[in-house]
C-alpha cells in the first residue's frame, strides 16, 4: 500500500505541476489575452475594461485558482478562432475519435508484438536473428506520418479499400468508424510494434540466462514448460513499464497521423490551433493529453506492483 | 579478441558516412538548383537526368533531398549534443548527491518523460514560433530528461563501487570524483543512448516539419517535402517516397551503429 | 555402484577456439556415499558438476560415459534425461536467491517438481508433501514459508527451500554445487549439518562441489582434488590431509594449516587507539508521529594498534566489523567515544579487488591519483620523506618544499611501490580488467601505501581469492609489514588466516 500511496502522491504532484506550467505558458506568458482578442490597435481604456471583464487584473494566484476550478469542471473559455464556440464543446466532440484511434493502436501493439516477440526470441539461427534485427530496425525508423502516406497510397488510391477523407464518427456508426480508423492505427502502431518486439526479445534473452532457468531445467521441466512457466512471466514484467511509454508515444503519433488521414480528432485540432495561435484550445488539448498520459502511467505503476511481488516498499 | 566481423557497425558506419557526405556536398554543390522552378519539369518522373524525379514546381527532388539531409543532421546533432551535455550534468549531480535534490529532479524528470515528445515540442513551438533555432531549442530541452535519467542510473551504479570510496580516501574532490573517476566509466552508456536520441530527434524534426511547424522555407526539410507531396500522391508518388525512404535509411544507419557498439563488449 | 564416470572430457566450442575444461576424468561412487570435489575456480570442477547434472550449455561438447544406475547418460536425449533430472538426480546451486523464480511463491515452485514427475498427484497431496518436506529440512512455520516469495526469505531459508525441492522426489543422487559459499559462516554450518543428516536419514548419495577444503572436510569421507581439468588426487579425505601427494594438494593444505604467528611485545607508539567506541545509526521514523529510533551496531569497543603490529578484528557478519572500519576511515559519523589516529589519512584494502580499481583507467593513472590530490604542505613533506623521493630521483632536489608533486616525482614513487608489491612496470599501461584477481589485490595494496600511509585497514583482503593466491597475498602483506614497519587492522571471518597474520585479536559479538 505504501508503494501505491507514494505513486499516488507523485500523481497528484505531477498533475498540479502540469496545470501550473500550462497555466503559466498559455494564460500568463503570451501577449495578454485581451490584446489577442482586440488586436494591437485597441485603445488602453478598452483593454483595461476588457481585462477587468476577463478578470486579468486579479493577482496571479487568484487567476490560477479560478482557472483551475474552471478546468476541473471542463470550462476552458471560448476559442479565439471559432468565436463564440466553447473550447469544451470543440474538444469534447473530437475526443471520442482520438480515444478510439489510440485504443485500436494499443490493442494492435499488444496483440501483435507479444507473439512476434516470443517467436523472435526463440529463433536460434544466425540468419533468422539477422533478418529479424534488420526488419525491426527498418520498421522502427519509419516515421508514422510517412507510413500513413504509404498506406493511403496503397490502400486508398491503388486498392481503393477506403476513401481518404470519408471519415464517419464513432457516435454515428461505430463499425464504419473503426474500419476507417484501422488504417491510421496501422500507421501509428507499426513502429511501436517494432520497438516493443525489440524490447521483449532482449528481455526474454536476458531472462533465459538467469539462474532460476537452470533450476527449472534441473527439475526436469520441458523446454516449453521452462519458457511459458517461468521465463515468459519474468520477461513481461519490464514490458509493462515499457508499454506505459508506448501509450504516450501512441498519443503523440496520433497527433501527426490524424493530419495524414484527415481524421478530425484532437490532434488535428491541436495542430490547427497552434498555427492560428488559438491559445484556449491549445491549452485545453495539452492539459487533456497530459492528464491522460500521467494517469495512464500511474495505472501502469499500480499494475506493475500487482504483478511483481518484489515492488513492495 | 573476437574475429567475427561486426557487420552492424560496418554497415551502419557506411550508410551514415554516405548520408553525411551527401549533406556536406549539398553545402557546395547540388545537381540542380534547389529553388529553380520549371513548368515543363512539373511532376517529371524519375529519369537519368533527375534520378528522384521532380516536384510540383518542377524542382529536382534529389537536390532538395540532399539539402534536407543536411538540415536533418544539423537539427538532430545539435539537439542531441545539447540534451546530452545538460542532461548528463544534471543526472550526474542528482545521482551523486541523492537526497531531496535528486528527488525533485527525478520527479520533474518523470513528468517530462511521461510526456509524448512531440507534444512538448509543439507546446514550445506554439509560443517560441517555428524556425531552425527554436526547433533545436525545443527538441533539445525535450532530450534533457532521458539523458539525465541514464546519467543518473550510471552514476548510481558506479558510485557504490569501491573504487569511488577508494578515490574518496585518496582525497579527491567531489568534482574530480564525478568527472575524472566516474565519468570515464559512464560515457559508453550515455553515447549508446545518444544514438537512440539522434534517431528520435530525426523523427521528431520530420514530424514537426510535416505538421508545418518545423523548419521553414527556404531551408529544405524532408518532413516538409513529404507534407507537400501528400496532396500529389496520385500524380507523383515518388515525390513522397524518396524523402521518406531517405529518413528511413538515415535512421537505420545510426541504429545499426548503436547496435554494433552495444555488441562490442 | 551408483555412479561411474569414465574418461569424461568437456570442450567448449566457440567460433574462434576450442577450450578444454575437463580433460578426461574417471571416478566412481557407491550408493550412500558423500563425495567431495575440490578445486579452485577454473579447475573444471563446476563444469564437471554441470556435466553430471546434464546441464551443460549448448556450446559444450562432451565425450566419455557417465553410468548412473547401470545406464549411460551421455547418449540420452533431452526428453529421456528430463525423466531423470529432478527425480533420480537433483541439484542444489550456489546462489539460492537467484536460483528461485522471483515471481512465484516458493511453495508453488517446490510443488512443480512433483507435478512434473507425477501427474497423478492431487493438489492437496502435493501441498501436504511439500509441507512435510519443509519440516524435514527444519524450516520454521512451513505453512507461512509456503506462501512467501523468494525475496521474503533469508539466504539460509532460501537454501533450505532449494534443498527441500531437490529432495521432493527422493533422489538417489544429490549434486550440491558450492551450496554454502553465498551464505554466512554460521548458516553455512547449519546447511552442511542438514546435508549430512539427509544423507544419514534417507541414504541419499551426495556430491559436494566446493573450493573450500574445510567444507569438504566437514562433510565428506572421500574426495577428488581437481586441478586444470584433471583429477590430481583422490581417496579418503583424512588420508589426503595427512599425506598429500600432489604438489597442488600440498599447497592447498599448507595454506590452511600455516602455523600461528608468534606474538611479539610492542612498546612502540600507538598508531590507532579506539576508546569506548559505540557505533549506531538512526532509523528515520516510518510514519508521522513515530519517534526516531537508534540502532546500535557495537558498544564500548576498546583496542589499540601499535606501530608495526597487525591486529585482527574477527566476528560473524552483522557484528559491526565493517562499520568500525568505516568509522575509523571517517565514513561513518554516528558514534560516541574516541578514535585516535597517529597518521591523518588511514587507507583501506578492500575485499573485492575487482570493483575497487576504476575499470575505466589504467593502473598507472590509478596509482598516481592519490599523489595528484595531495595539497597539504605537511603531508607533501611527509610523502617526500617516507618515499625517499630524493633517493629515487638520484639525488636530484625536488622542485620546492611546499610544491605539489611533479609528474616526475609521482612516476618515481609509483615505480618504487610497484617493486614493493612485486609487480612488473609494464602493468602501469594496463587496465584493471587485464589483471588477475591476485594482481589486482597487489595494486590495491600499492594504492593504500602510495601516499605514505603506514597504517592500513585490510577488510577481508583475501576472502575473494583462490586458496593458493591467498597464501601469496598474505605472504606479501607480512613482508611489507616487516620492510616498511606497517601497522594493520586486519578484518576477517577466517580463523586460520587471522591466526597466521595477527599479533593479537579483537573478537566481536553481534549485539542482541
State the main characteristics.
heterotrimer, A: 313 residues, mainly alpha, MetI-like fold, 12 helices, C: 512 residues, alpha/beta, Rossmann fold, six-stranded mixed β-sheet, five-stranded parallel β-sheet, 37% helix
What do you see in this structure?
The complex is a heterotrimer of chains A (313), B (265) and C (512). Chain A is mostly helical. Chain A is built from twelve helices and no strands. Chain A has a domain of 181 residues: MetI-like fold (Orthogonal Bundle), CATH 1.10.3720. Chain C has 512 residues and is of the alpha/beta class. Chain C has a domain of 147 residues: P-loop containing nucleotide triphosphate hydrolases (Rossmann fold, 3-Layer(aba) Sandwich), CATH 3.40.50. Chain C has a six-stranded mixed β-sheet, sandwiched between helices. In chain C, helix 5 crosses helix 7 and helix 17 runs parallel beside helix 18. Chain C is globular, with a radius of gyration of 27 Å. The mean pLDDT of chain C is 83. At the A-C interface, helix 9 and helix 10 of A face helix 2 and helix 4 of C.
Give the CATH level 1 class of the domain at 96-276 in chain A: Mainly Alpha
Question: Helical region count of chain A?
Answer: 12
Report the CATH topology name of the domain at 96-276 in chain A: MetI-like fold
Q: How is the main sheet of chain A built?
A: none
Q: If classified by CATH, what would the architecture of the domain at 96-276 in chain A be?
A: Orthogonal Bundle
Q: Gyration radius of chain C, to the nearest Å?
A: 27 Å
Report mean pLDDT of chain C, rounded to a whole number: 83
Described by its quaternary structure, the protein is heterotrimer
* CATH H-level superfamily of the domain at 96-276 in chain A: MetI-like
CATH top-level class of the domain at 260-346 and 453-512 in chain C: Alpha Beta
Helices and strands of chain A: which structural class? mainly alpha
- Given the helix and strand composition of chain C, which structural class is it? alpha/beta
Report how far apart the termini of chain A are: 8 Å
Task: Kindly state the number of beta strands of chain C.
Answer: 18
Which pair of chains forms the biggest interface, and how many residues does each contribute?
Answer: A-B, 46 and 42 residues
Strand content of chain A: under 5%
Q: Which geometry of chain C do the CA atoms define? A: globular
Order of helices and strands of chain A: HHHHHHHHHHHH
Amino acid at each position: 500500500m505504501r508503494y501505491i500511496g507514494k505513486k499516488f502522491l507523485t500523481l497528484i504532484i505531477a498533475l498540479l505541476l502540469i496545470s501550473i506550467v500550462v497555466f503559466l505558458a498559455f494564460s500568463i506568458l503570451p501577449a495578454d489575452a485581451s490584446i489577442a482578442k482586440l488586436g494591437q490597435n485597441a485603445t488602453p481604456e478598452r483593454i483595461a475594461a476588457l481585462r477587468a471583464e476577463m478578470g486579468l487584473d486579479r493577482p496571479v494566484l487568484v487567476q490560477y485558482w479560478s482557472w483551475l476550478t474552471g478546468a476541473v469542471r471542463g470550462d476552458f473559455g471560448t476559442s479565439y478562432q471559432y468565436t463564440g464556440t466553447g473550447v469544451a464543446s470543440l474538444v469534447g466532440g473530437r475526443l471520442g475519435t482520438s480515444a478510439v484511434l489510440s485504443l485500436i493502436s494499443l490493442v494492435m501493439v499488444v496483440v501483435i508484438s507479444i507473439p512476434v516477440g516470443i517467436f523472435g526470441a526463440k529463433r536460434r539461427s544466425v540468419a533468422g536473428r539477422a533478418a529479424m534485427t534488420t526488419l525491426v530496425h527498418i520498421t522502427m525508423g519509419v516515421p508514422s506520418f510517412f507510413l500513413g502516406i504509404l498506406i493511403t497510397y496503397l490502400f486508398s488510391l491503388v486498392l481503393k479499400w477506403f476513401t481518404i477523407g470519408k471519415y464517419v464518427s464513432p457516435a454515428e456508426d461505430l463499425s464504419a468508424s473503426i474500419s476507417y480508423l484501422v488504417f491510421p492505427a496501422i500507421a501509428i502502431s507499426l513502429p511501436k510494434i517494432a520497438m516493443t518486439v525489440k524490447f521483449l526479445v532482449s528481455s526474454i534473452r536476458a531472462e533465459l540466462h538467469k539462474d532460476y532457468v537452470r533450476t527449472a531445467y534441473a527439475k526436469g521441466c520441458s523446454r516449453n514448460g521452462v519458457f511459458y512457466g517461468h521465463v515468459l512471466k519474468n520477461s513481461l514484467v519490464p514490458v509493462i513499464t515499457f508499454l506505459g511509454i508506448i501509450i504516450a508515444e501512441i498519443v503523440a503519433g496520433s497527433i501527426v497521423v490524424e493530419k495524414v488521414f484527415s481524421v478530425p480528432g484532437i490532434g488535428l485540432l491541436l495542430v490547427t490551433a497552434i498555427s492560428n495561435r488559438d491559445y484556449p484550445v491549445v491549452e485545453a488539448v495539452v492539459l487533456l493529453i497530459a492528464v491522460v498520459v500521467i494517469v495512464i502511467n500511474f495505472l501502469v505503476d499500480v499494475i506493475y506492483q500487482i504483478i511483481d511481488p518484489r515492488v513492495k516498499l | 579478441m573476437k574475429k567475427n566481423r561486426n557487420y552492424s557497425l560496418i554497415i551502419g558506419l557506411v550508410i551514415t558516412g554516405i548520408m553525411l557526405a551527401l549533406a556536406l556536398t549539398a553545402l557546395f554543390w547540388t545537381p540542380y538548383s534547389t529553388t529553380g522552378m520549371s513548368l515543363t519539369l512539373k511532376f517529371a518522373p524519375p529519369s537519368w537526368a533527375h534520378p528522384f524525379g521532380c516536384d510540383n514546381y518542377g524542382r529536382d527532388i534529389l537536390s532538395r533531398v540532399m539539402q534536407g539531409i543536411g538540415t536533418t543532421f544539423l537539427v538532430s546533432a545539435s539537439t542531441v549534443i545539447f540534451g546530452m551535455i545538460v542532461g548528463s550534468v544534471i543526472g550526474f549531480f542528482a545521482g551523486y548527491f541523492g537526497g531531496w535534490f535528486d528527488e525533485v529532479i527525478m520527479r520533474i524528470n518523470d513528468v517530462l518523460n511521461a510526456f509524448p515528445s512531440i507534444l512538448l515540442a509543439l507546446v514550445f513551438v506554439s509560443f517560441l514560433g517555428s524556425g531552425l533555432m527554436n526547433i533545436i531549442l525545443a527538441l533539445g530541452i525535450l532530450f534533457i530528461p532521458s539523458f539525465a535519467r541514464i546519467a543518473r542510473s550510471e552514476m548510481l551504479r558506479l558510485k557504490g563501487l569501491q573504487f569511488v570510496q577508494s578515490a574518496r580516501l585518496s582525497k579527491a574532490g567531489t568534482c574530480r570524483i564525478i568527472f575524472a573517476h566516474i565519468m570515464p566509466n559512464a560515457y559508453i552508456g550515455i553515447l549508446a543512448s545518444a544514438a537512440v536520441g539522434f534517431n528520435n530527434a530525426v523523427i521528431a524534426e520530420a514530424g514537426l516539419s510535416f505538421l508545418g511547424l518545423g523548419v521553414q522555407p527556404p531551408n529544405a526539410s524532408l518532413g516538409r517535402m513529404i507534407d507537400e507531396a501528400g496532396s500529389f500522391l496520385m500524380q507523383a508518388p515518388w515525390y513522397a517516397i524518396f524523402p521518406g525512404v531517405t529518413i528511413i535509411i538515415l535512421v537505420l544507419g545510426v541504429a545499426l551503429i548503436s547496435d554494433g557498439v552495444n555488441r562490442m563488449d | 555402484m551408483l555412479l561411474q564416470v569414465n574418461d569424461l572430457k568437456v570442450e567448449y566450442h566457440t567460433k574462434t577456439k576450442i577450450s578444454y575444461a575437463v580433460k578426461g576424468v574417471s571416478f566412481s561412487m557407491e550408493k550412500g556415499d558423500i563425495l567431495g570435489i575440490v578445486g579452485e575456480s577454473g579447475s573444471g570442477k563446476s563444469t564437471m558438476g554441470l556435466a553430471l547434472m546434464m546441464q551443460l550449455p549448448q556450446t559444450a561438447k562432451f565425450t566419455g560415459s557417465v553410468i548412473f544406475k547401470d545406464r549411460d547418460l551421455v547418449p540420452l536425449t533431452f526428453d529421456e534425461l528430463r525423466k531423470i533430472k529432478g527425480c533420480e538426480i537433483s541439484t542444489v546451486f550456489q546462489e539460492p536467491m537467484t536460483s528461485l523464480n522471483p515471481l512465484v511463491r516458493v511453495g508453488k515452485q517446490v510443488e512443480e517438481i512433483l507435478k512434473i514427475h507425477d501427474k497423478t498427484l492431487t493438489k492437496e497431496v502435493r501441498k501436504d508433501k511439500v509441507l512435510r518436506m519443509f519440516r524435514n529440512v527444519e524450516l520454521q512455520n512451513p505453512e507461512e514459508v509456503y506462501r512467501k516469495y523468494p525475496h521474503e526469505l533469508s539466504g539460509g531459508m532460501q537454501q533450505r527451500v532449494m534443498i527441500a525441492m531437490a529432495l521432493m522426489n527422493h533422489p538417489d543422487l544429490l549434486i550440491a554445487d558450492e551450496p554454502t559459499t553465498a551464505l554466512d559462516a554460521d548458516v553455512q554450518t547449519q546447511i552442511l549439518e542438514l546435508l549430512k543428516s539427509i544423507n544419514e536419514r534417507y541414504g541419499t548419495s551426495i556430491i559436494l562441489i566446493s573450493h573450500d577444503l574445510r567444507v569438504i572436510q566437514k562433510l565428506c569421507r572421500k574426495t577428488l582434488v581437481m586441478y586444470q581439468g584433471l583429477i590430481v588426487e583422490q581417496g579418503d579425505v583424512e588420508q589426503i590431509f595427512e599425506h598429500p601427494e600432489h604438489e597442488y594438494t600440498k599447497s592447498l593444505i599448507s595454506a590452511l594449516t600455516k602455523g600461528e604467528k608468534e606474538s611479539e611485545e610492542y612498546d612502540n607508539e600507538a598508531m590507532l587507539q579506539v576508546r569506548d567506541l559505540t557505533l549506531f545509526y538512526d532509523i528515520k521514523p516510518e510514519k508521522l508521529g513515530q519517534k526516531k529510533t537508534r540502532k546500535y551496531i557495537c558498544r564500548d569497543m576498546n583496542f589499540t594498534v601499535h606501530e608495526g603490529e597487525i591486529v585482527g578484528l574477527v566476528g560473524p557478519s552483522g557484528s559491526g566489523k565493517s562499520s568500525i572500519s568505516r568509522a575509523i576511515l571517517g565514513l561513518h559519523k554516528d558514534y560516541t567515544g574516541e578514535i585516535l589516529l597517529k597518521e591523518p589519512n588511514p587507507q583501506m584494502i578492500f575485499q573485492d579487488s575487482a570493483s575497487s580499481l576504476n575499470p575505466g583507467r589504467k593502473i598507472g593513472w590509478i596509482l598516481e591519483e592519490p599523489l595528484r590530490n595531495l595539497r597539504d604542505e605537511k603531508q607533501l613533506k611527509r610523502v617526500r620523506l617516507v618515499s625517499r623521493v630524493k633517493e629515487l630521483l638520484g639525488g636530484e632536489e625536488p622542485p620546492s618544499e611546499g610544491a605539489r608533486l611533479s609528474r616526475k616525482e609521482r612516476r618515481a614513487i609509483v615505480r618504487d611501490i610497484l617493486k614493493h608489491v612485486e609487480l612488473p612496470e609494464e602493468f602501469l599501461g594496463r587496465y584493471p580488467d587485464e589483471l588477475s584477481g591476485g594482481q589486482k589485490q597487489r595494486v590495491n595494496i600499492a594504492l593504500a601505501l602510495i601516499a605514505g600511509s603506514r597504517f592500513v585497514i585490510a577488510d577481508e583482503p583475501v576472502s575473494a581469492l583462490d586458496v593458493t593466491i591467498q597464501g601469496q597475498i598474505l605472504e606479501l602483506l607480512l613482508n611489507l609489514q616487516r620492510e616498511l614497519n606497517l601497522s594493520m587492522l586486519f578484518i576477517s571471518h577466517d580463523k586460520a588466516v587471522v591466526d597466521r597474520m595477527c599479533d593479537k585479536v579483537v573478537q566481536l559479538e553481534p549485539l542482541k
